[in-house]
Amino acid sequence: MRLSERELVSLIRRKLARSTASEGTIVGPGDDAAIIAPTPGEALALSTDAIVEDVHFRRRWATGFLLGLKSLLSSISDIFAMGARPRACLVSLGLSTWASPLFVEDLFEGMLKAAGRFGASIVGGNITRSNKLFIDMTVTGHLAPGNAITRAGAKVGDAIYVTGHLGGAALAAKHLFGGRIDRGRLAEVESFLRDDVAATPGDAQVELLSRFFAPPIRAEESSALAAAGICTSMIDISDGIGSDLREVCHESGVGAVIEIDSIPVFDRLPGSLAINRRDMLRLAISGGEDYELLFTVRQSDELRLQRLFQENDLCPITKIGRITPNSEGIVFLDNDGRPSEGFTGFDHFSTKEEGH
Amino acid sequence: MRLSERELVSLIRRKLARSTASEGTIVGPGDDAAIIAPTPGEALALSTDAIVEDVHFRRRWATGFLLGLKSLLSSISDIFAMGARPRACLVSLGLSTWASPLFVEDLFEGMLKAAGRFGASIVGGNITRSNKLFIDMTVTGHLAPGNAITRAGAKVGDAIYVTGHLGGAALAAKHLFGGRIDRGRLAEVESFLRDDVAATPGDAQVELLSRFFAPPIRAEESSALAAAGICTSMIDISDGIGSDLREVCHESGVGAVIEIDSIPVFDRLPGSLAINRRDMLRLAISGGEDYELLFTVRQSDELRLQRLFQENDLCPITKIGRITPNSEGIVFLDNDGRPSEGFTGFDHFSTKEEGH
């Protein structure tokens, strides 16, 4: 680390000052705390998330920009998963000696891109030393007090839906952690995402990698669902359907049955990285990193849901199963209608190999 | 790590559920985000801070309880340093394999003690793996929108004050990092602080160590100063007067002169750990960890300040210098009135040895 802490903080503050100052920020970066004016009449959502070197990324392939972008997007996703809208972000960095000032600048460039996409701002943070780099982000959001969509409201008989297509991010992660992506391709991904973080790349490999670094945060879908008030529960898919559905079932005190064949998998795979459908389903269920939304609605609201998404030109949604009594547990059915073995969710601490 | 992530989260949630639920918490721990109702008419303070193994503590001597207590107290200190009152806390843990479930429980026990002391609550968090343990905490607070006391308002001629006595925490840290405190003494400190985190131990060594693990957060003093509206700037002393005063001067665009002999040093030292006054002053200026308040007031408000502290039976305060023009820089004067050499502040990244 060639800069002093003070010089590094100055560098970050100059970077943050160039972003559009957020309305309602009374005191921004550089003091003991940031001060913001809450949105009148709204409740406040608070979420925190950490990204750690050699757990969530490797130094070898994560550029500052891509890491900053992905980190803050995935944190912002938690706010949308409650039906709230992001507002102010705090970034706490544990900086390893390998993190150059240029890397830190790029990291904030990526985070500013993520925040800016949703009109959020970075209002403060902290830096300290750490032998492995970590990024801990807190995102605040706002929402009408009665509109929060928790994990706890799913009822027996509700339909289970997911947005978009799953498994792509986990496949990208597999290849990244496996060291099978060269830096030239990553430079293409970065160049593409610096230009437009929300567009779809033409090249299939660039698109697949973009699923990992710039997951398709479902902002409009979240807002529409919150305003319509038809979700009984919602979660963002960070760890794979297996694990995240288990959270919903646990909090709601219910079971679930999932028809595996109905799970919409990401299928625009580049020839060189293609895998079979069964393995892709496995990634959708156990891989994680998709940041699509999983939500439940009453059967009587399914028509309204379909109309809501069609009329507002929102993303594709797919029904993948239904909520059952708690005693029935969580069951994944094969297309012959029999329980499938061998599908599980993500657990940072036990079942997964090092690397995500 | 013998528990799965899910089991560990359950353990933490049970622990948090036993704390008094905070008024205005709409959704607590266990969802994508916590939801709180902002205090009507008040602005929101947001601060984040991290504690990292082998940077801020060593596994050898930091028990879970003491580490949790100290971590959250030092984070809460940032909120008071703005003149705000703490409200909701988020705790993001990077857990090393050595951190047992019992350690994690104790960590939260310490954090609950810290939060509970000020009527704050822990509303959410995150856990992930990390090779070295880290604790990243975000604390939100509230204050009347016009009452924020920043680092940026000091004016030439203002008097510079500090609360309490300085250097004790840094001396304790020196002995802790030097391996010169045995675990039996730490057990006494923990036992004392579990009983009453705000009392003063009778034993001098226990008292000195308590300065490090339970710094005397100046809650009432902060509230009184914010309500009186007489501070032109304020900061909490986390890195030592040298560094923290430099922050105030930098943000305010001013210089300062400090009379070294007027700095109130912590002097109830146990015989076995006693050091001379000059070294104690050095710790007060460059050591950090005191979490006392440093603030500036107009000369014309000094009498009002003295009365405010006397009439409300607040802690001792000491005038240590005055604000000067920017061009004069920051000068430390010896008691012969000549600039003193060799006093500096804390910089995590350059000047300090590993660990402090």
3D architecture notes:
Two copies of one chain form a homodimer. Chain A has ten helices and twelve strands. Chain A has 356 residues and is α+β, with helices and mostly antiparallel strands. Chain A folds into two domains: 5-147, PurM-like, N-terminal domain (60s Ribosomal Protein L30, Chain: A), CATH 3.30.1330; 159-333, Alpha-Beta Complex (Phosphoribosyl-aminoimidazole Synthetase, Chain A, domain 2), CATH 3.90.650. Chain A is globular, with a radius of gyration of 20 Å. Chain A has helices spanning 5-17, 64-80, 101-117, 168-177, 183-195, 204-213, 219-228, 241-252, 277-286, 302-311, and strands at residues 25-27, 34-36, 43-52, 85-95, 121-129, 134-143, 159-163, 231-236, 254-259, 293-297, 317-325, 330-333. In chain A, a hairpin with a 6-residue loop joins strand 1 and strand 2 (34-36).
